Amino acid sequence: MAIDSALSSPLGPPAYEKDAKALQFIEEMTRNAGSVQERVLAEILTQNSQTEYLGRFELNGATDRETFKSKLPVITYEDLQPEIQRIANGDRSPILSAHPISEFLTSSGTSAGERKLMPTIKEELDRRQLLYSLLMPVMNLFVPGLDKGRGLYFLFVKSETRTPGGLLARPVLTSYYKSDHFKTRPYDPYNVYTSPNEAILCPDSFQSMYSQMLCGLLERHQVLRVGAVFASGLLRAIRFLQLNWEQLAQDIETGSLNKKITDPSLRECMAKILKANPELAKFVRQECSQDSWEGIITRIWPNTKYLDVIVTGAMAQYIPTLDYYSGGLPLACTMYASSECYFGLNLNPMCKPSDVSYTIMPNMAYFEFLTHEPNSAGFTCDSPPKLVDLVDLEVGKEYELVITTYAGLCRYRVGDILRVTGFHNSAPQFHFVRRKNVLLSIDSDKTDEAELQKAVANASQLLREFNTSVVEYTSYADSKTIPGHYVIYWELLVKDSANSPSDEVLKQCCLTMEESLNSVYRQGRVADNSIGPLEIRVVKSGTFEELMDYAISRGASINQYKVPRCVKFTPIMELLDSRVVSSHFSPALPHWTPERRR
Ligand code: AMP
């Protein structure tokens, strides 16, 4: 194919002519990152100049960076809570944004145990769509021939609610999949999914997963890439296959759909796709009944070139398991996004997970960066933070991301810590280091130290009548089980050994802890089945002293030693596990409903 050489870019000449525009856009944005950022800030401040929020800071029409930085405070979600509550309660005046708030996006980050509500406006959908439209042109540079088959992607919608004032509140991906942008997307031969929209949009997670898996099996030779948003989602799909392959094989053998699929539009759609194929059914049975599931992904989908899942940040824990199931297929992390704002993409998506760097696209929002001192607690009013602009960052340094969005978040701390690894043109590229204050995470749940402390305190109330208390505890996110689960190590002080708490009581302690954890955790347990039952492992008395001895032998200061509330280091976990005297699992699901508790 003839491609105009003027369109070639440092990303490499477009693999296909249709990709030239997207690659050129990336080049333009990254080459002019400074001026694009200046323009974006001016646009946001002009658009929102009459809002109540900006009005408070007397910008007097100024849209330049210096005035903005000198007048607006850096804030967190909690600072905005009163405004967000008013919008949720139905106040339609321009509080944060001049454009009407179209809905709330429910973040997996929580505040007081409930998902944060992120106000958004209609035009943000276009911005998200734009970022999505850049992903395949970049991927096509690295993986040829993706138009010769399909992608098996496990994509889901989650439940939605309405705020007291009537606005929808739902996760950003649910909002996107339900939008016309997604539902009526133009046909792109390089980006065809095996899952029909009806399967993705089915609100029942079993029916949705079942039909998506069935379509994937039916088209197994067509599948060129397998993916989900996060690594945990893809592993959940593999687990689903382990549990349901017999029924799936039966459907394929007979050509008649499992009766548990009751959604009429899904049944109608699947009727057109499902045809009896006894040979394929035999193959599925043969592969899935083997004792070992090593390499199952490439056995079932032999033409898979890569897995498309995010394995950066907390998801890195799943890399060994994905390697096991896929025989070490490349793992592509394509984008970095949040409910607040979609940030950017990976311009080298076939690199090793440890080398992944995301390039923030300067047109998405106005970005600032708070220098992150790895061991400092934060900043005080006496020492106002120094925020650095996108183009002024230094390679090798760590920063916390602060955003100003078209939807009305101003100098808002996202909570992500990023390290600059280099530049693409004048746009920096980032290694995702971690999210602040996250102790435990299995899926999209994020449990912090205070939440864990509260959960332990609530559960240990049940031990009172046994004259028993929790002397020390720590935790661990066990991602070897599928789904993964939280493990809490407890050292108990049992004062009356004749009346020590039974297995039944300790199981109830597990459930009480689960009840105390935030709604994203409980939704993962109840609705998504993405988190397994919480486990308490009781360790011998004296174990935590041994833990301290071990830390001190490795150089920790005796005076400053604190029990780590989460452990990841293998020798420490081996020490803990070797001292376990009993283990107890939560016997039931905690409560969860889509409605917010407050
Ligand atoms: P949410 O607001 O629930 O959509 O979660 C957004 C958060 O997920 C981000 O702020 C990050 O902490 C995390 N996240 C999103 N994309 C990535 C990625 N590619 N790598 C690592 N973490 C990510």
Automatic annotation (TrEMBL):
The keyword Cytoplasm does not apply. Residues 451-569 form the GH3 C-terminal domain. GO terms for molecular function: acid-amino acid ligase activity. This is Probable indole-3-acetic acid-amido synthetase GH3.1. Transmembrane segments: none annotated. Belongs to the IAA-amido conjugating enzyme family. PANTHER family: GH3 DOMAIN-CONTAINING PROTEIN, INDOLE-3-ACETIC ACID-AMIDO SYNTHETASE GH3.1-RELATED. Residues 358-435 form the GH3 middle domain. Keywords: Ligase. One of its GO terms (cellular component) is cytoplasm.
